[in-house]
Records
---
Amino acid sequence: MSLTFARHCIVALTVRVILIVYANFHDNNFDVPYTDVDYKVFTDAARHIIQRESPFERHTYRYTPLLALLLTPNILLHLDFGKLIFSLVDILVSLLIKRILIKQYCTRSTAEFCALLWLYNPLTIVISTRGNADSLAVLLVLLTLSMLQNDNSLLTGVLHGLSIHFRLYPIAFSLAMYLSLHTKNQLIALPNVKQVKLILGCILSLSLLTASCYYFYGYKFLYESLIYHLIRKDARHNFSVYFYMQYLTALQVSGILQKILTFLPQLVLLVILSVRYSTKFSLPFAMFTQALVMVTYNPVMTSQYFFWFLSLLPICLTNLCLSKCRSIFLLGIWLIAQGLWLFAAYLLEFKGLNSFLYIWIAGLLFFMANVKILLDIIVGYRDIPQI
Amino acid sequence: MNLFGATRRQARLLICAIFFFLHCISISIAFNASVDLRVLGDGFHRRLEYHVNIGNLTKENCYVALFIEFSSALYVNVDELADLHRFEKEFQNVVCSVGETNIELFAEKAMSQNVTVCSLLNNITSILTIPIHQRYQNAREGGGYINVSLPSPKLLLGCKERVKGYRVSKVELCLPCADLVTKWREIPYYSTTCNYVWQVPVGDLSHLTLVTNVTLLLTSLGALFALKRIWSNRSSRSKKEN
């Protein structure tokens, strides 16, 4: 590497800034906009906050009010402020990846290489510069992991609570994190001091944040940012393998067997992965595979969800023994399956053609590609430090 | 009594009525209004461009508006409209709506929207643009497409000076269009393109059993394979360690 890591960060940030500027040109000149529709939602919610109204006045705002608060400079300073923040967060995430890997006995150069994979990942660059806020969620998850490595259980718990408040998905990492603090001679039923601190920290921050947001914005906050995500059944086209089934059954109340078969596979996999990879060393891998399972089995899936596992992949890479051929093959089937789905969805959404059946088949293929990646990654994982 | 058996008063009334009728026709013909619709884009998101032409309009400071009652199959996104008015300088006209604001509802559960688009009439021709989207519709046996007709708009003209010969409209326009002038008058117009049929694709309910069974089978198999792989990986590692 001829450039130092700091310079890579500057280059990566510059690329992002160029794309943010380009986004404005693109949005004004093309039918399909570059900027994510959610960015407009955040900005409108921020406008409501400035007008001393609830951010939930904005229809489809389903995030923490803290996000709208953070993005108030979108109105006060410049519309691109949020995108710049998300891009800076991308850089912070890469620094965290490097730090976590060094803690896991990686050499500095390997850690930097893995961090660069995040920094220059085209998906990462595009998602952040489109104005998607998931890089913030990723930052909180990695900060939690980093604190756990530093043996600061209370702060880990506090950060974990904040992560869950910000985005619900890190709740799935709770069991793996809790088990990773387990000591050898400890009874499984009785938590040790570190585990108690983790739980207390998490409950404390989560309940404080929830209570204070509830105080300001009432039940609408609870419903939109928490309950909605639990009961969500979006029957409009998305990457999820369940999309067409959900659309066809939109008029019906799903049977109990269908409900069980929809949620049980995901639940079982999440629990088993938590238990199987519960050592402190394997925790990043447990979280990565769990994130992959959550995204693969989610009843709703959009490209921003890929962030959940893509951010955890670099910290597992050093322990994955996959040949170059295998890696390229896996990446290839993932991209091809995604491309097929996108093409079928384009025909429906922008050409008005009835391509529901093709979207469903492409969704099945994409699901199979994700499962294939999960299987190969499990086989390729080595749970000892690869120095 | 005259030759036709009518009284003098009746004859006078008849003449007045004929004069009034001719007067109205002359004004209508004088305006010679036409509306042409162009639909830009295909699929879920389209842009309606109404080219409004009011020929022979001599008055100044006039506004033109179109009022359209969209069925629940189509919608304008009020947040998108607010954004367009806020940021897009090229977006000259104002669009507002009354009715359904939830953009996520299926057509069957949504209410209709009354949309008004208005603009200052600089020339005799104005282009009024509305960004519009289609809603998802419930699946049905056979799938295919459902035809949604775009309703013909009502053309309204409002000037600072009085426009004679056209009745004041009782249509309730939404704000801010409604407040641009004190009185809006409905203008008859000529159009050959306003009857536009929009085809909305819908899912095929006859696929339900196949789709449900294959989806649930595949997702369950995926989980079983993953569990098997986790288990076998653990066993082989234990053997190696032993």
Note: Residues 20-29 of chain B have pLDDT under 50 and may be disordered.
---
Amino acid sequence: MRLASAQEITRDMFEPLQLGAGEGEAITRPPISYWREVVRRFRRNRLAVVGLVILIALLVFAFAGPLFTHWDPREQSLFDTNKPPSGEHWFGTDNLGRDMFARLCYGTKVSLFVGVMAALIDLVVGVIYGGISGYFGGAVDDVMMRVVDILYGIPYIIVAILLLVVIGPGLWSVILAMTITGWVGMARLVRGQVLQLKEQEYVLAARALGASHLGIILRHLIPNAMGVIIVQMTFTIPGAIFGEAFLSFIGLGVPLPLASLGTMANDGYQYLRIYPYQLIIPAIAIIMTMLGFNFVGDGLRDALDPKLRR
Amino acid sequence: MLAALWIIVTATFFLMHSIPGDPFLGDKVTEAIRQNMLRKYGLDKPLWEQYVIYLGNLLRGDFGTSLKMLHRSVNDMIRDGFPVSALLGLEALAYAVTIGLVLGTLAGFRHNTWLDYLAMFVALIGISVPGFIMGGLMQYVIGLKLGWLPIARWEGFRYTIMPAAALGLGTLAVMARMMRTSVLEVTNQDYIKTAKAKGLSQREIVFRHILRNAILPIVTILGPLTAGIVTGSFVIELIFGIPGLGKYYVQSIFNRDYTLILGTTIFYAVLLVFLNFLVDVAYGIVDPRIRLMRSRE
């Protein structure tokens, strides 16, 4: 509401800029690629960065931790059972006298391995299955998705338990049990993406230029669906770690002498009343893993989805 | 739905029977005794015949008998254990749905206030702390150190609070998070503006327009969430010493009691598939658009 003052602005108050033709249109900032923009948005999200820091700390702990201790995670000592945390044993010892710090490093490594392997297997199977189903469409899609729908209705933990009872516990049996129906989610997701993407003009162009079906799927469709795929993976990893811990708790996790965070929590639970640190220490490790992956997953989902850009 | 059930039954049956050896192998068992035992349980017949008999029994509602515990059938265990498990599950679901929805709704309406942060903090704990660890920690802190609630067993309402809370926590967290996003999304829709413009009271807008629409996505994930509660009960019942079906199931796994595992697995599978089906039906009732789409097909 300052109309009066607007009249006080006279022409000579303006100073014309001397610009050559086209100079005003020049792009002054360097162009930002999609992935650079993702990184930028991810770094602006405080929780996501915290999650990333937690994950890096866990990795360092799992792989560099053993360098700082001379204890062997498998070495039992009946003279040193159930020692509380001290300078000698940083996290104490368990009921068989094994050093909890060394064991926790080892268990974290095994748990992360289970999670990452399960996610990778889901990725490969799901992307191939979903890619083919979505790309070819029609009857192929109908049949392939019928199978997926049926598998999707079967509760995965029941299948995992059954499978482990039949083939016996083991590191790879646990991974197999986690993935045997786990890939279905990824396949559905990839199919949905491919169905959308294959109608794009660049796919038509690629086909006109004589690209093979496989080439189009691998070179054009999958890279464009990568964002969604990565987000799904960051949620599969903690899911598999959680599943393994759950199975360990009912005696079907990785067998001795292996240890995972789940088997450690289970061992610790037996002595909860007298030595609570034996449950609390692996529990904190599991919680940190879950938090780290969930923060990073949420952050990535927000960063990768341009629709949410504000 | 029937196809999924048939595949589960068939796969379970043949997987269980593919385990080498039979339950009656042992040093003290002579060949004659073994043959008699095999005949008694019908294990001497060819596999496909056993399969047909088993399927027939299933259709009549007979899940088979235990190999380890004499005169104990899977049906007995379901009759004893399932009501307990169902009660525990329903209580957990009740906590999760009411508290989860209220937290999520409040967080959505009071976006970026301390209420929002508090609700999301609770949700974060629920998502990152597995139920069985939460159960153990609750037993230690609330049961042992503070002595507020009994640590284990199943003898009245006070005994149900802790296990149900531990069981429902994960679901509560997912509910709260989804409800919050959903409320935020619906509040920005044009039809809310319309409702405001035509002069509806705040109360009417919230209950008739915002909440009714915001709750739709929640109904779709109710199926997987219920499944999570059912499977979560395996461990929770074990930890809290609750005589439910989940505990029997885990014990039959420990004992390698194959017919029991087979029977309970199938029962659980049927239950979960059925629950999923119910959720589908419920979704059709809640969202008229789905009903319209189906009737047009």
Note: The CA atoms of residues 78 and 115 of chain A lie 33 Å apart.
